Amino acid sequence: MDESLIQINRIHRFDGDSKLKAFVDITLAGFVIKGLRIVEGKNGLFLGMPQEQGKDGKWYNCVQPVTKEAHQELTDFILAAYKE
Questions:
Q1: Of the four listed, 6, 26, 52, 62, which is most buried by Cβ atoms within 10 Å?
Q2: Distance of alpha carbon 14 from its chain centroid, rounded?
Q3: Rounded to two decimals, what is the model's pTM?
Q4: CA-to-CA dists, residue 81 to 11, 16, 35, 57, 75, angstroms
Q5: Quick one: which of 82, 76, 64, 70 has its CA closest to 11?
Q6: Nearest to 23 by CA among 54, 60, 55, 51
Q7: pLDDT tens digits, residue range 20-33?
Q8: d(CA 81, CA 13)
């Protein structure tokens, strides 16, 4: 993934003991993606995709990288920015 195509617009960090550590908004290849989540899981930090609740009450990802590699590159880029 070409990092020149990704720009961090906002990282909204949360204090306290919540597992939700931050919301992140990015620009990716000319599109704004809002609502990415940095979450503390049992194996460390991970990147959660933006979600919306369906009529069935379940939550569904609105944005999903096409490959595992793209997801990992996006995760690495955003977590590095979060840790700065």
A1: 26
A2: 14
A3: 0.84
A4: 9, 20, 16, 33, 10
A5: 82
A6: 51
A7: 999 999 998 889 99
A8: 12
Cα distance between residue 17 and residue 33, in whole Å: 26
User: Is residue 83 packed enough to be buried (19+ CB in 10 Å), middle (13-18) or exposed (0-12)?
Assistant: exposed
Buried b (16+ CB within 10 A) or exposed e, 7-20: ebeebeeeeeeeee
Give how many domains the chain has, as a whole number.
1
Return the structure tokens found at 36.
């990415």
Q: What are phi and psi of 58, to 5 degrees?
A: -85, 155
- Cα–Cα separations (whole angstroms), residue 8 to 12, 18, 55: 11, 23, 31
* CATH code at position 53: 3.30.1120.40
